[in-house]
Sequence to fold (121 residues):
Amino acid sequence: MVKQLLVTVAVALVVVMIARMKRGKESAGRSDSGSADDRPVSTTALAGYALAAVMIVTAGTLTWMGWKERNEIIEVVVIDARTGERTVYSVRRKALGERQFRTVDGRIVSLGSADRMERVE
Fold:
């Protein structure tokens, strides 16, 4: 998750640096008497800034949505096949394994061979 965000920021920085270098070459080639503030922003720089902004917003949104989904609390019903007894636990989605899980209150539950687990979404 952090790696995706760092890659996105790195790409955005590269785009910004390329736009600035290109703008610097254009200003060095010109001998206008106008100040640098009077020049309009080039289309390439504008496209670069827009692309960088879109990438950062997209990466942030996807990271937030993934975090939200992994931390969603679901109910897990454990059924003992021998007695039919049902026990309900609250579990975060990321803490749910095949035969073991950690409840919201910190208990670790391991299922026996006769136990069955059902998720209630």
Observations:
- Helices lie at 2-29, 43-70.
- The longest strand covers residues 86-96.
